[in-house]
């Protein structure tokens, strides 16, 4: 089965927060290379602008990649074994199967015209090269753009050495102001200086000083940006004098180090020297974080031994002002990150101080505590906030788990992986979560409560992946430990998941008895989460055998338990189950209301499994109401969702009979050709559009948008090229815009001429404009 993304968005690139300056030659050359080669790597030293250039290229060419442009940030990844998983996460693949990650990636990308940007590969060079070669060989239209301090060494790789920004060649002759300001380095300095010093401009009086500053910095973008910040406190002349003093020391340095490396290092040294002692301490200490961090984490991990907790906020502000920490606003949360070059510098200072081991342990302890707190508080009113927080902290959680196992603290690692169970299930990390639990169970021999908990937790992940035999074995061991140690909570969860296994195997009566046992046990230990979960499963089981009254009672009881604690996730699944029962009783209006209420919550949580279940039932409802086109579209969208999860209906496979009956009904209602067309339309809709469509929050505008394309005698690609011809583009310009070879563009033009019976590009242009006008008129009439 092909695994696909949820298609939530075709382009997952960060928003540019500062202007992109210059690089016209590099942009043009990069596009040319990308049109000719499947793998292109930007190389160059840290701070030269490889990442920024890659992101600009990706944004510029996104129209050429209808299946998406995806950024994979690797700077915070230390474990090569997690490379494939990190790429899958970036592609929004929620693989809940047990298939190898590489196989999932290959299947997903096999028929995609997509661009994958792998950023900061140098510390994972071999593994990146292997993965890139594997993907390139197994796909036809995938392009890969990598950034690295050196080439990957992958087969077919083309490289572009990213130079420093252009500087004027003075030769002792002062250049006119107008000429000077055309150089990229000067333009960058001017823009960044004006950001910190409003009103700053390059003038006749200062342009030579600006030029000397940019030249002293070798045109390195990061160096220029760091230096420009100093204008908050220094004049241009003072800045230049201090650069001269700083870089004069470089002549005593190693000649084996490239001048540009020494320049950047010296500038970071200077930035470090300008920090207060406490700011230096904080800079070094925050280097232990992966990805990003929030203020609370900085206060908890970095305070003490020279930094008072109440001073952390002011120190963070100071490092932001000095462009060391970069603020990263995510919704209502403010987070902070370090550029990779700055982070590595801070880590060096931390190691020199001898505090590296202490800070890494404090980092681990903080996130271990965060995971334990989340496990306690996930059943309650702050549930969505906790799920969101754990997703934002995933890189740090992973680093903490890596620390546990690297230090031989396997029990701590096993406990932490178990505490994160709901994080693994509700996000992109189910496969990774099972890996951590399997690793911990294999390494930790202590036959205690931690192992018993991990066993039933791991069994749940195995059930979701459809691996029932391993799940049964883990449940048996967990039950034996629970009975021997008198662990009432463990025995309750074992009963619950044993019931899930029984339902999966078609033993409904056995499953119901196990669920009843679980309810009794949960009540005995006052565990509302387990009780709610079990009532949900009971509702589905009773509905399956036609015991409607019992099904409704169990579902409503689940809602009551959840409402008492302000819980939303299990409640949304209970509404889904009650919707199924209402549909079975032909109360389609009530069923639709329940499913839509559930869907709204699952959308807020970004729970793709829950969304899929809701869309399933809504498609059944639409089919019963003879809304066959609507039902078919939803079925097409569901094909993508279930493929992205790696299995159809996951641990709810006993609902398959309803799904199959629905498809038969739609086929009869539409006829086979129209059914396939409806599936295709639904499969092309991004996930957020599908949800809005299912909730009837928006009209199916995508259907109207397709009519002009279907009315055209050309393929969508040829229609796109015809429109570019109408804009006056040459074949070379079309090739660059769409990132295809010029020969390919010429071939498309020939096909267009042949299909339309034309003999010139001018005729194509006239046809394209007329067709576009007619399409707009049809759309207007349709609205």
UniProtKB/TrEMBL annotation:
Protein name, entry field: LuxR C-terminal-related transcriptional regulator
UniProt superkingdom: Bacteria
One of the Pfam families matching this protein, by short name: GerE
Region entry Disordered, spans: 697-717
PANTHER family: HTH-TYPE TRANSCRIPTIONAL REGULATOR RV0890C-RELATED (PTHR47691:SF3), REGULATOR-RELATED (PTHR47691)
Ranges in a coiled coil: none
Family matches, as InterPro entries: AAA_22 (IPR049945), HTH_77 (IPR058852), P-loop_NTPase (IPR027417), Sig_transdc_resp-reg_C-effctor (IPR016032), TPR-like_helical_dom_sf (IPR011990), Tscrpt_reg_LuxR_C (IPR000792), WH-like_DNA-bd_sf (IPR036388)
Lineage per the UniProt record: Bacteria, Bacillati, Actinomycetota, Actinomycetes, Streptosporangiales
Organism listed in the record: Microtetraspora glauca
Annotated SUPFAM superfamilies: C-terminal effector domain of the bipartite response regulators, P-loop containing nucleoside triphosphate hydrolases, TPR-like
Domain annotation HTH luxR-type: ranges: 707-772
């Amino acid at each position: 089965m092909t695994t696909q993304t949820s298609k939530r968005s075709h382009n997952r690139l960060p928003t540019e927060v500062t202007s992109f300056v210059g690089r016209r030659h590099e942009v043009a050359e990069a596009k040319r290379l990308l049109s000719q080669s499947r793998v292109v790597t930007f190389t160059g030293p840290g701070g030269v602008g490889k990442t920024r250039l890659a992101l600009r290229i990706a944004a510029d060419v996104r129209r050429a990649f209808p299946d998406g442009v995806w950024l994979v940030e690797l700077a915070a990844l230390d474990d090569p074994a997690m490379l494939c998983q990190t790429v899958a996460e970036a592609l929004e693949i929620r693989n809940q199967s047990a298939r190898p990650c590489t196989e999932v990636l290959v299947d997903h990308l096999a028929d995609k015209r997509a661009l994958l940007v792998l950023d900061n590969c140098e510390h994972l060079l071999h593994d990146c090269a292997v993965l890139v070669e594997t993907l390139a060989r197994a796909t036809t239209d995938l392009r890969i753009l990598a950034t690295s301090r050196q080439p990957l060494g992958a087969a077919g790789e083309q490289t572009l050495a990213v130079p420093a920004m252009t500087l004027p060649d003075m030769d002792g002759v002062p250049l006119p102001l107008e000429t000077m300001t055309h150089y990229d380095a000067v333009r960058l300095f001017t823009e960044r200086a004006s950001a910190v010093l409003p009103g700053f401009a390059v003038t006749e009086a200062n342009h030579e000083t600006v030029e000397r500053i940019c030249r002293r910095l070798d045109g390195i973008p990061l160096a220029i940006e760091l230096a420009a910040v100093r204008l908050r406190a220094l004049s241009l002349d003072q800045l230049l004098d201090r650069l001269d003093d700083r870089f004069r020391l470089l002549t005593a340095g190693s000649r084996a180090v490239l001048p540009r490396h020494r320049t950047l290092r010296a500038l970071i040294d200077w930035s470090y020297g300008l920090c207060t002692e406490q700011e230096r301490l904080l800079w070094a200490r925050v280097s232990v974080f992966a990805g990003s961090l929030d203020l609370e984490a900085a206060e908890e991990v970095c305070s003490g031994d020279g930094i008072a907790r109440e001073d952390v906020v002011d120190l963070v502000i100071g490092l932001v002002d000095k462009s060391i920490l970069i603020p990263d606003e995510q919704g209502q949360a403010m987070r902070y990150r370090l550029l990779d070059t700055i982070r590595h510098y801070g880590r060096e200072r931390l190691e020199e101080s001898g505090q590296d081991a202490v800070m890494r342990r404090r980092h681990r302890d903080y996130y271990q505590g965060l995971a334990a707190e989340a496990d306690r508080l996930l059943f309650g009113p702050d549930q969505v906030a906790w799920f969101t927080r754990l997703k934002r902290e995933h890189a740090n959680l992973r680093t903490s788990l890596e620390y546990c196992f690297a230090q031989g603290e396997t029990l701590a690692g096993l406990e932490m992986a178990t505490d994160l169970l709901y994080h693994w299930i509700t996000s992109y990390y189910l496969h990774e979560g099972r890996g951590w639990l399997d690793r911990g169970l294999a390494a930790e021999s202590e036959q205690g409560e931690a192992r018993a908990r991990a066993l039933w937790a791991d069994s749940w992940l195995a059930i979701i992946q459809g691996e029932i035999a391993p799940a049964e074995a883990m449940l048996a061991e967990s039950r034996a430990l629970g009975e021997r140690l008198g662990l009432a909570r463990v025995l309750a969860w074992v009963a619950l998941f044993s019931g899930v296994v029984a339902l999966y195997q078609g033993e409904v009566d056995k499953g119901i008895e196990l669920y009843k046992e679980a309810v009794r046990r949960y009540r005995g230990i006052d565990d509302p989460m387990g009780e709610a979960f079990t009532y949900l499963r009971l509702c589905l089981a009773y509905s399956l055998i036609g015991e409607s009254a019992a099904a409704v009672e169990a579902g409503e009881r689940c809602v009551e338990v959840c409402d008492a604690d302000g819980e939303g996730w299990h409640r949304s699944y209970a509404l889904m189950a009650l919707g199924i029962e209402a549909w079975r009783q032909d109360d389609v209006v009530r069923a639709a209301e329940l499913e839509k209420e559930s869907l709204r919550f699952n959308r807020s949580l970004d729970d793709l499994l829950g969304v899929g279940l809701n869309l399933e039932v809504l498609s059944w409802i639409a089919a019963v109401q003879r809304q066959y086109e609507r039902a078919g579209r939803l079925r097409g969208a569901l094909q993508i969702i279930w493929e992205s999860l790696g299995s159809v209906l996951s641990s709810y496979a006993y609902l398959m009979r309803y799904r199959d009956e629905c498809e038969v009904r739609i086929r009869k209602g539409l006829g086979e050709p129209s059914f396939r067309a409806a599936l295709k339309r639904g499969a092309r809709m991004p996930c957020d559009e599908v949800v809005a469509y299912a909730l009837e929050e928006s009209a199916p505008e995508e259907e109207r948008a397709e009519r002009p394309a279907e009315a055209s005698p050309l393929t969508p690609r040829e229609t796109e090229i015809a429109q570019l011809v109408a804009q006056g583009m040459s074949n070379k310009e079309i090739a660059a815009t769409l990132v295809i070879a010029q020969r390919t563009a010429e071939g498309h033009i020939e096909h267009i001429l042949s299909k339309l019976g034309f003999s010139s590009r001018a005729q194509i242009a006239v046809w394209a404009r007329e067709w576009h006008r007619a399409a707009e008129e049809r759309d207007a009439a349709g609205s």
